[in-house]
Amino acid sequence: MNKPLAVLLFVILIFPSTNSFAQKTDKNLQAKIKDLLKGFHGEVGVYVHDLKKNKTVSINADSIFPTASMIKIPILIGIMDKIEKGELQYHQPLIYKDSLLYAGEDILGSFKNDEKIEMSKVMMLMLTMSDNTASLWLQTLAGTGTRINELMDSLGMKVTRVNSRTPGRQANQAGYGWGQTTPYEMATLMGKIVKGDIINKEASAKMLRLLGRNYWDEEAISQIPTDVFIASKSGAVDESRNEVLFVNGKHCRYIFCICTNHNQDQSWEHNNEAWELTRKLSKMLWSRYN
What we know:
By secondary structure, this protein is of the alpha+beta class. It has one domain: Beta-lactamase, CATH 3.40.710. The protein is built from 10 helices and 11 strands. The longest helix has 17 residues, at 273-289. It is globular. Residues 45-260 form the Beta-lactamase class A catalytic domain.
């Protein structure tokens, strides 16, 4: 064997092509999920990533959907970026003002004017309770929707954006509400947090812990055993129900996001069609990976 050929073979053996580590479609699972989605009365997109085998399922995963409260993950990233830069502090005291109220049933909105609360507790309310008054306050503290959108762009998120209270995005807000994303991008954003790739490993770990304390556990989370760590964020408005989860079980690690829009069933009962679909998908994935 001549020397150049021997060197080439050595390089191939020691440094295999990155394509060998590329994600592959789980065709069997994709077919099963497609069957599950048939007949849904609305638009639906799903992205699944098996982190152990690096296999994926992508069904309408690049279509744009309203985020509803899933936009609170980008807001969280905006706040953590400010904290890491020393512009905010995790435990700093804040003063609640009546002008911050977003009408609804939020906990923070029941505070009296000039009451004190720590930044960390406002963040907890945003993620655990999905408190909208807390979320909009944090969006402002993060430096406006424009700055959060710039952070999303820097992370490779080309579609995930804050629309509400963000200059120049009125048309997007009319179509998608508070925020917009794709199942692929929201799952990818969760994946970056899991891997420690957002800001730094310590900040990502803090965000993952915060996302692991979700009060709203009756849909996708309900199909997973209670001793399994789950980081998640859901979102719901009348015609759109969404959820993104990272599931870290003994024998599995996976992320999935399901987004729906223009749903015919806009009820708020447990048997809402989109919520039933979400539970069925979550149960299917847990059974599949275990």
